[in-house]
Amino acid sequence: MLGVAVGISQSQLSKYLRGIRVLDVDQLDDLCFALHLDITEVMREAAIVARRD
User: Fold this and answer.
1) What's the pTM value of the predicted model, to 2 decimals?
2) I need a labelling partner for 49 at 20 to 30 A (CA). Which of 1, 39, 42, 43 fits?
3) How far from each other are the two terminal CA atoms of the chain, in whole angstroms?
4) How many helices (H) and strands (E) in the chain?
5) Sorting pLDDT into bands at 50, 70 and 90, what band is 53?
């Protein structure tokens, strides 16, 4: 499970994904690593989406 790979409970992961809690940079990095994503690219895409809104 993804929560185990990141080192957090499934409940915590659910709260992050629903926007109830905010990830810190270390948690985001762990999540990106578990998903084989480049954190720099994730942040770049987030900035693009934020500018659209």
Assistant:
1) 0.79
2) 1
3) 32
4) 4, 0
5) confident
Q: Comparing C-alpha atoms, which of 50, 16, 53 is closest to residue 35?
A: 16
Q: How confident is the model at residue 14 (pLDDT cuts 50, 70, 90)?
A: very high
Q: How far apart are CA 12 and CA 40, in angstroms?
A: 23
Query: Among 45, 46, 12, which Cα is nearest to 27's?
Result: 12
- Say which residue the tokens 């985001």 belong to: 28
Classify burial at 6, counting beta carbons within 10 Å of its beta carbon; exposed 0-12, middle 13-18, buried 19 or more. Answer: buried
- Residue identified by tokens 């994730």 is 42
Main-chain dihedrals φ then ψ at residue 22, nearest 5 degrees: -105, 135
Six token digits for residue 44: 């770049």
